[in-house]
Fold Radical SAM protein.
Amino acid sequence: MKLTVLYRGPLSSCNYGCEYCPFGKWKHTDEELAKDRADLERFLAWVEARTGDTVSVFFTPWGEALIWPWYQQALARLTHLPHVERVAAQTNLSCKLDWVKDCRAEKLGIWATYHPEWMKRRRFVAQCEALTSLGVRHSAGMVGFLRFAEEAEALRRELSDDTYLWINAVKDGQEEPYSPEDVARFTAVDPLFPVNNVRHPSLGRACRGGESVISVDGEGTARRCHFIDEPIGNIYAPDFDQSLRPRPCAKTTCGCHIGYVHMDYLELDRVFGSGILERVPVKPLWRRQDVAPRVSPRE
Ligand code: SF4
Ligand code: SF4
């Protein structure tokens, strides 16, 4: 069986403090960190035991995981398993990258989000360049607040042509709705912005969530995705595999990349191919001439 697991343990702390995020600058107690580590260890053992399957794992923590050595080691450990096809993680890319040498880089994928209020652009670009030189496929991205538009354009100009820069449309909490000009501006940076700027109709639609893609928490509770709370089982139960079957989506819409890419009718697996978890399209999509130099690079 082919199975993709989105793992989200109890870790919900972050070294950054984005004002729109509830996890910013939150610190765990030593006991909470120990629990997160123990949960992760149990999950790793479960993946290691599934030698009859082809497994991909995507770490989608509430906060920032890659600043902790046990997550870095987990990625490395998983990449060395013959039955693990892909290991990806969402990160703010603030961590050192010395642990990457312990990974099979060709199996690693990084979804790196740039937070301009917390990291200098030059450092973020340097981190992406380091990933490239280490042979790690990665995407870079930003939250599409209008106040970040100039910074997104500047980042697009400084990133390598081979690095896809996505913009996550702000569907709630935006200062004001996007105008057609705003949409055109973000689309010039990220040609797939119009795809993300939509809540895709999903009710009753076929989605791989709950069949070959699952979301798993620290207790092993499995759900079809991060967006539907109802559990479908627990991965540590001996009969868990019986829980995996086709399930039409139970939500009206799906508006997040890590969800809607698994809906059949959107055919986004054709756009992203094997880079679907770390959000890297099969072909470079953007054109440098589309991003006009509105500002000089600041740093
Ligand atoms: S870097 Fe991510 S997890 Fe950390 S505060 Fe910002 S949005 Fe939240
Ligand atoms: S379409 Fe989205 S909300 Fe529905 S099951 Fe799939 S991932 Fe979950």
Summary: Residues 114-198+284-299 form one domain. The radius of gyration is 19 Å. Residues 116 and 148 are 8 Å apart (CA to CA). The helical segments are 30-49, 69-79, 121-133, 149-158, 180-189, 193-196, 257-260, 268-272.
